Every structure is written in C-alpha cells, then in structure tokens.
Amino acid sequence: ATSTSAESAAVQVTGTDSIIGGPTMSDRNVLSAGSDGVAAETGALRTLIQNNIIGLDSTGTFAIGAFGSGIYANLDADTTIDSNVISGYWDGIFANGSTGMVIIGNKIGTNRAGTAAAANGAKGVWLLGAADGTLISNNLVSGNTDEGVFTNNSVTNTTITGNTIGMNAAGDAPIPNSVGVYLQGPATIGGPLPANRNIISGNTGNAITVVGSFASGTTIEGNRIGTSADGLSAVANGGAGIQVDGGADNVVIGGAAAGAGNLISGNTGHGVHISSSGTDNTVLHGNVIGLDTAGNVLGNASQGIYVAATDGHRIGGSGAGEGNVISGNASNGVMLDGTGATGNVVAGNIVGLDPTGSLPRPNGGAGVAIWTFADGNTIGGATPGDANTISGNTGAGVSIANGADNNMVRGNRIGLDSSGVAVVPNGAAGIGKGGAGAGNTFISNQIVGNVGLGIDLGTTGVDTNDALDVDTGSNDLLNYPVVTSAIDALGTVTVDFDLDVPAGSYRIELFTNPAGADPSGYGEGQGLQVASTIVHTGSGTESFQIIYGGGYGDTITLTATEESAGPVYGSTSEFSAAASVACTDTDGDTVCDIFEDANLDLDGDPSTNPGPDTDG
Known about the structure:
mainly beta
C-alpha cells in the first residue's frame, strides 16, 4: 500500500497487537505522509511496524518531502520497529514516554541500499519523556542532519547494540550524522560480544556525547569508534571519539572482560574527552586508543585521553585486563589539565607501545602530561599491577608543567618495554618537570634509555646543586645527592654520599644501571635496589651512608625525595651523577680482595698467579 497524504499520519494506531507491514515484499507499505508516517498513540500496545518504506519513494531512493516523524510514538508500550527504511522526515523515530520499544534492523537516514544519505532533517532516533527500556539494535543510523540517536534526560534503561552509526552499510565510508549518539539519560552502548559491537564513525561531531547528571552510570563497551568496521582504517568522527561532560558521573568506558574494551582511533579530536567540574569518577578499562586492530598506528588527531579540570577518574587499573593501550595519537597519550584536574589515577596502562608492550607506537607528545595547576594525581602506584609502561613516545615519558603540584609518579617503567628489560626510549626526558610547581614525587620507577635526562627539573638539562638549597623553580630544584664513595665488600656495597637540603626527612633511592651511565653522566635508574630514610639538619652539606646487596663495577645513581610522617612524599630531585662501585683492597695492591679470595691474584705480587691469597 502507498500513502502520500500531506495532512495527517498515514497510519494511526491506538489499539492492541496492530501490524503495519510484514515480513514479505507483498506486506510492505510505502508511507510518505506530510505529518507522520506511522503514529502509535496513547494506549497502543504491542504494535509491529515491519518492512515498510517510510518517507521515500517506492524504490527507497528519493525523499518525497514529508515532514513530522517517520514513526511517532507517544505513551505507547512494547512497540517493535523492524527492518524498515525510515528517511526523509524531520525525525526518523520520535518516541515520547514509550516503554519496552524495540528498534531493530532499520535503515534510518539513508536510502534502502544503505549507500547514500536520504536525510531526516533532524534526529534519526529521538527518545524523550519517560521513555524506558528501549532496545536499539542492528540498525543503520546515518545521514541524519542532527544526532543519529538522542536521549533526553528523563529517558532510562536504553540499550544500543550492534548498530552502524555514521557510515554506509558496508562499514567503510562515511554517511555522517552530526553526533553519532547523544545521551542526556543513561544507556548501555555496546557490550563484550561481537554481536553487541556498534561501529560509530564518520560523524561530523563526536561519535558519542554523554552529558549531564541524568546520564550518570552510562556504560560504553566493545565498540569501534572512528574506524572502519574491520578496525583497520580511519573513518574519522569530526570531534572526539567519546566526550563525557556536564556532570555525568560514574561513566564506564570499556571493561576488563574479554571483548569489553573499545577501539577508539582515527578521530579528528581527542580519543576520549572528559570535561567540566562535576563530571567525576569515569572509569576507562581495556580500551585501545590510537591503534588499529592489528596494533599499528591509527591515531586520534589530538590527545588520546584528555581530562580537563575534573577529578576522580581512573584510567586503567591493577587488575587483569584493566589497563588500556594508549599509543599512536598525534599529541599526548594522556593529558590531565587545569585547575580541578585532581585525584585522577593512571595505572596499569601501555602508553606509546603496541599491545604487546614491546614495539614503539609513539604518541606525538608526552606519554602522560600533567599541566596547568592539575594537582594530586597518581601515575602508577604501589603494587606491581599499577605500573604503567610509558615508552616510545616522541616527547617525555611523563611531562609535568605550568604550576602542577603534588603529583605522584610511582612504580612505572619509563623507557623500557613491558618486561622491564629492553630499552624503548622516549624522545625527551623520562620525567620532565617544567615551569612552576612543587611537591611532585617520582619514586620506585624504572627510568632508563631516554633521549633526555632520566629526571629533568626545569627541562634545562642537569641542574647545579646550590648551597643550602635556597633556589626555587620546578620541584624547588631540590638538590640531588653526591656520591663520595661506593665500595663492594664481598657482595655488600657501602655507598657514602653528601646532601645539602633544607631540614627534614628524605627518602633516598639507589638505582643500578646495567647498561652504564646516561650519556650526560647523571642517572638514569633502571633497577631500584634500596630506599632508605635519612634526616637532615638543614645546616649545609651533611654526609650519609646507604648499603645494598650489589657488586664491584655496578653503575649507581641516587635521588632524594622529601618525606614526612605517613609517609607522605614531596618533591623529588634529579638523578645524581653516576658512580661506579669500587672494591676493597686490603693489601693495597690494586687488585680487589674478591679476586684474590678466589685465588685470582693478578697483581704480580710474590704469590703464584693465580695463587693463594697473600693479603688475607
């Protein structure tokens, strides 16, 4: 049947178990009414709208010039909208207060073939009122002038799975909406199974926007965002892959279970953008951000993850599957920026490498950047699972700048692969601290092989210690220890060092470097051997001692970190100059006791060579 009425809905439904269309060609209606194609009004129950062409000509190619909504649903229940073409209206589907609606297998905003736009003039699917329990599954939602899917703040329990949004039916070229999915109410987008996966790419704005407190608790998992359906090429969204904003709390992006992570790559904006005060406690687990499904670079054109002036977000975690891979992005891998960006945790991630943690896939800036008064954030943590591998990036491994205070960088691998053995350098400092800002703590990290210094305060190269440590600047340019002696006695190494710092307690960390000293002569720190607390009177240069189990020829470096009760840590210094461990030589013959004790007297003294130990 064909209807082209310009005055009212082509079909109005108010009863129970109505069927418009059906499963066969002969059942199909072509409905192009001026007001609405189908109107399921108050009291309509279990309506089935199936296999119709709504808003286009009978070939499913050309818009007829309808206005209103392709399907208008108002306070209906259990309506099923299945396998229709719904295009050329103002809104494709408008559902006000609908409950239990199922929208499955439709083409919304395209021609019947799914190869070109046949735009709805506003939204593809618009849920509003107290619409509850809507399932939007396996649809092609593309070519709409505004959002592909839009939910108002009173909408609840929406599930969006298996759709292609912003692309053609083949999943390899854009047919853009403005925003792919715009949520003011909570929803589940995707899921861990391949059948749950949405492909949300090619839109002119963000792929997904989650905004406002009513959208709190949204879950986004298992999707491909900014890529082709196979995840191997970019079909860019013009904005961010995912934006969380306006007070939307407790949003979960990805998950630790197999298949729950999203692929967020190839977008023109940030991969993930979290912003505005009151938007708190987002969790990102198991995502790949900036690579393709083969582990090659398919970067987002800005930051991988950008957290702007908002707090309490967790990027990664210590549990199995919780870490993200954040690599190949044009700017920084992760950026925490602005006043209010506090209490964020970045843990257990691979930043700058491929998913195996071994091959470089550089972010174009730093691996992790903490800038502009972003305070009190933690990169890494106290347990092995918290360790990030931050290596292979074009800039510093970690960059802290512009008044950022009291941030903790702990227990990470910076400049190494995920095994902690092979060097994969960052292109600048391991940790670079520029500009004002103090109290930033760098402890228990493995830092080695980077192009710049291991730790660079002020980003000006090796700083010079000053008397009484009265200078100011990045981390107050805290003086580093000066090794005066390092002697091995049968596997026990005693290190004497001087330190000139303000009065207080300090954590001294001692590192060994199997590959030898950094080319600068200062640092780096591949293997933490021991940490010890000393107390300084603040009266100038004072001498201390630290002991570890090592050996002759070790290359060692030290750092100093302010420590108070708790312990609570403050500013960390740069690495000391590297020193080589010497040995005891009781008889003064320039041959180590350890060699003579092993009957290897190589000094040409009166004993046999090799021969018995003549010096005890």
